[in-house]
Design brief:
single chain; 278 residues; seven-stranded mixed sheet; four-stranded mixed sheet; 9 helices; disordered N terminus
Amino acid sequence: MGNLMKAAVTVITTARPSGVNVGLIGNWRNYPLNVIKHNQFNYNDLVWSKLPDVFDLNHPLAIVAWAQPVESVQLSFLNTFFVLDVSQENCTANTVIFDTQRGLLKTDKTSRRCLQAVWLRADFGLKQDIERLALYLNQTQRKLPFIKGDVRLLPLGAVTRASTSWLGAHQLTDQLALPARRTELVFCRRIHLKTPVNFKMLMGQLERAQALQMLLLAERAGEHPFYFEQPVVMTQPIFSRELARDRFRQFAIDLMLQTQHPTTAQDIEGYLNSYFGK
């Protein structure tokens, strides 16, 4: 077990996708926060015309009062733009969902459960891919975002908590610094949320999520040689093969630890080469 633990530590701390130009990391700050252009900034006016345009998250119960109760609800990848955790408030709801098409919804599901369902509906292994890329970028995983295509869901608190609030950066059209270390978020160019979040910290979080998104896009671009149409032109290096190997490598380490099967880092690499081909 001693050798196995050393192997695990060695693989976890030193494994980094090979063949990646480090210059890529220095370039991601040049991308605007909303680099991906789409037409998702539309909302259901029939629903939102009956709701306020401004919400103050320092008064969550006032927001709960506007929300419609829904027993079984799922987040919409593109249309959900904010998930408000109200589990610590004096109300029966645990979460309020802001949605461009459905308006305000409240549920007894915790925000943690809502986001767990989002991860389960995404690609198998996506969370592990994002974790590995965050490690590559030397980013903390304390506030690991959900990123898939255009969708960027960012936690306002640590994901290790029982629950926290999440914002949909893909629907964010502006952000303004407010007094008392607060930030006003503007979604769909219409809906304003005044949040108890420091502006500078939020901007840093948005930039880090953007860096992860650009690496994921570059990795997905490796599939283009298999299609006649290539709508996205990417010049960044591709390392999807190494990313996949990292995922299976970590799974093998965890499996060996659970079964107390003695092995070494060299053994694990040998298993991977034998099964998947070097």
